[in-house]
Amino acid sequence: MEHRRRQHHPRQVHGERELGTSTYSGQRYGADYRFADPVSASDPAWYKVDIPATGTYQVAVWYSANAGYNDVTPYIVVTPTGNQIVNVNQRANGGKWVSLGNFTLSAGDENKVGVSRWTAGTGYVIADAVKVTRIS
Questions:
Q1: Angle at the Cα of 43 from the Cα atoms of 40 and 44, rounded to 5 degrees
Q2: Are 130 and 59 in contact (CB under 8 A)?
Q3: Choosing a second label site near 80 at 20 to 30 A (CA), which of 52, 68, 98, 101?
Q4: For every one of its 136 residues, what pLDDT tens digit does the chain have, with 9 covering 90 and above?
Q5: Considering the entire predicted model, what is its pTM?
């Protein structure tokens, strides 16, 4: 079985118009991370990921946890059958890889994972890093 690990850092986030950059938390992945207030609009920050072949991949995210961060952060995973939404409590389990699950991803170098600011939760939405690992 082939395994591929792709780690994507904040500077590879697309759609950063309203995102700030911070080094506040020591739980960050790399030099910094992005943050933004929630909004009632579809305005995700996208991670562009190069998927070498259509298959099943584990998608994991890294974020800093803080009581002032969002408790219902929506992550969007683009699959051949439509976008899948996974909500994450960014007040807990930060500073490590947190799995969103296993998903079928299509081959191509394109936006595959997004962090949406459209949430009923309160607190900053954090966009730090994404890791995509081939399962099959």
A1: 125
A2: yes
A3: 98
A4: 233 344 444 334 555 557 889 999 999 998 999 999 998 887 888 999 999 999 999 999 999 999 999 999 999 999 999 999 999 999 999 999 999 999 999 999 999 999 999 999 999 999 999 999 999 8
A5: 0.87
